[in-house]
């Protein structure tokens, strides 16, 4: 009894100390702080361990390292572009896009996101088309392949990818594969071993080395492929059969992915190198062959990264800036719509100002609590005049934001707290009317496959759904 009382007292003391740390030392967002304080209050023992695993902030030390030459090259370009924007002499290929110079400036300042205007972009919304194009490009690789996915599976699609990677490694191409340890937890060791035995370099991001992985809540959600420094892929598709629509649970998989050629590939390459150097003991050093791009088009792009290691929520800030710049319409597609108050207020203000705000979410959950919180957040915006559509043709996984048919964002970041603050994400911010309008056309096509959630229908939801929404909304800051 004495030992039990001692342990209980110790847990209470640790809970109090942890609560003080959350409030005064870690400087969390107030909603997140309150959520964790409630967890500690109502489940003091389990809550303590839950916080250590899921709530403990990541170390402030730099986790991404860069050699001096490449770092200085980026800084020089960023400073030059900032000065040009400040002096009002920055050249936009499309003068109509000069009105978004403040968005370019923001992303330059808070993420060193170099703006390039010589890119060609292809949009893929179907998994078969995307992976057929990717495999075709992989087969033509001559120098290197850099591939990074949050989820990699050793299923049929994973085996198709492996066959190509092994073949290219045998031909002398440098092949590197980086996957997230948590996202790819079902990846078979035999799959990884087979790749390594063939000469493919493989690493896991934040792998579990102890019984408890204290970084389990901070995942690398990025999906990138760079081939010979000339071709880059970025978007929402992971490597797995479900992304080809082969899993009955989800049905057809609707996503958005980009194939990029041009100077923006350099930024994709840099992002991969930073992530690889964090995960691997064999750093990639600067080499011109990794930056072998050429002029391929006239699409303006900034590649923007965000993560829990940075002071600013770069992608979220970019989203808000885009929303506040809207004059005509804002079209959003996301599987998880759990915006914090800043994004929610921006959308409310836009809708109340007469901007046409359309939000599209899936009709089925892959994470139940997240789904009900998404439904709740969407419903809240109906009163401001936003329109909400429920995609019915399978599972919607696209992460797109389009404003006025002029600018857009496509990448890995959802509109939720996890993407804004906990995950390592990367998006392409696109400045091009043609690309933006292609995304608008795809959105409008998806409306034909959706049902509209009106205010009347939302108010008629059952008591059970209201209860699920309430619970999910309460814990949304820690989802």
UniProtKB/TrEMBL annotation:
Catalytic center residues:
221, 223, 228, 397, 399, 404
Q: Where is the PLD phosphodiesterase domain?
A: 216-243, 392-419
InterPro entries, per database record: Cardiolipin_synth_Firmi, Cardiolipin_synthase, CLS_N, PLD-like_dom, PLipase_D/transphosphatidylase
- Annotated GO CC locations: plasma membrane
Q: Which domain of life is it from?
A: Bacteria
Entry coiled-coil feature ranges: none
- Give the catalytic activity: 2 a 1,2-diacyl-sn-glycero-3-phospho-(1'-sn-glycerol) = a cardiolipin + glycerol
What sections of the protein cross the membrane? 35-54
Report the subcellular localization: Cell membrane
Membrane topology, record value? Multi-pass membrane protein
According to its UniProt entry, one GO biological process term is: cardiolipin biosynthetic process
The family database entries (SMART domains) matched by this protein are listed as: PLDc
What GO terms are given for molecular function?
Answer: cardiolipin synthase activity
Q: What does this protein do?
A: Catalyzes the reversible phosphatidyl group transfer from one phosphatidylglycerol molecule to another to form cardiolipin (CL) (diphosphatidylglycerol) and glycerol.
- Protein family (similarity comment): Belongs to the phospholipase D family. Cardiolipin synthase subfamily.
Q: Which NCBIfam families match?
A: bac_cardiolipin
Q: What is this protein called?
A: Cardiolipin synthase
Task: Give the organism, scientific name.
Answer: Oceanobacillus polygoni
């Amino acid at each position: 009894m004495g030992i039990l009382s001692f342990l209980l007292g110790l847990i209470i003391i640790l809970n109090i100390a942890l609560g003080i740390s959350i409030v005064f030392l870690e400087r969390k967002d107030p909603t997140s702080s309150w959520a964790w304080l409630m967890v500690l209050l109502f489940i003091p023992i389990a809550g303590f361990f839950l916080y250590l695993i899921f709530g403990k902030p990541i170390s402030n030390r730099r986790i991404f390292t860069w050699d001096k030459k490449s770092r200085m090259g980026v800084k020089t370009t960023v400073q030059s572009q900032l000065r040009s924007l400040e002096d009002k002499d920055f050249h936009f290929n499309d003068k109509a896009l000069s009105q978004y110079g403040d968005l370019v400036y923001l992303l330059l300042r808070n993420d060193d996101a170099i703006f390039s205007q010589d890119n060609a972009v292809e949009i893929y919304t179907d998994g078969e088309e995307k992976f057929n194009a990717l495999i075709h490009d992989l087969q033509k690789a001559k120098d290197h392949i850099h591939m990074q996915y949050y989820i990699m599976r050793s299923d049929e699609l994973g085996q198709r990818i492996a066959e190509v990677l092994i073949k290219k490694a045998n031909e002398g191409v440098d092949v590197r594969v980086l996957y997230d340890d948590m996202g790819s937890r079902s990846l078979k060791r035999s799959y990884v071993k087979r790749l390594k035995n063939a000469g493919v370099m493989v690493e896991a991001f934040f792998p579990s080395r102890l019984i408890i992985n204290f970084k389990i809540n901070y995942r690398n959600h990025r999906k990138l492929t760079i081939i010979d420094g000339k071709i880059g892929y970025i978007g929402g598709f992971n490597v797995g059969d479900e992304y080809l629509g082969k899993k009955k649970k989800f049905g057809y998989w609707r996503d958005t992915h980009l194939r990029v050629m041009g100077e923006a590939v350099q930024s994709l390459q840099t992002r991969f190198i930073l992530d690889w150097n964090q995960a691997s003991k064999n750093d990639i050093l600067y080499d011109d062959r990794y930056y072998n791009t050429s002029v391929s088009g006239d699409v303006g792009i900034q590649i923007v990264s965000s993560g829990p290691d940075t002071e600013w929520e770069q992608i979220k800030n970019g989203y808000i800036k885009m929303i506040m710049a809207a004059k005509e319409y804002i079209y959003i597609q996301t599987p998880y719509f759990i915006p914090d108050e800043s994004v929610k207020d921006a959308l409310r203000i836009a809708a109340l100002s007469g901007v046409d705000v359309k939000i599209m979410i899936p009709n089925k959950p892959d994470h139940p609590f997240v789904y009900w919180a998404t439904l709740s957040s969407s419903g809240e915006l109906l009163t401001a005049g936003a329109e909400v559509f429920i995609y019915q043709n399978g599972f919607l996984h696209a992460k797109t934001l389009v404003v006025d048919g002029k600018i857009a964002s496509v990448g890995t970041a959802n509109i939720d707290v996890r993407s804004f603050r906990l995950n390592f994400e990367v998006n392409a911010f696109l400045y091009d009317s043609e690309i933006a309008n292609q995304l608008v056309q795809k959105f409008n096509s998806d409306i034909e496959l959706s049902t509209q959630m009106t205010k009347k229908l939302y108010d008629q939801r059952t008591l059970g759904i209201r209860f699920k929404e309430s619970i999910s909304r309460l814990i949304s800051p820690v989802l």
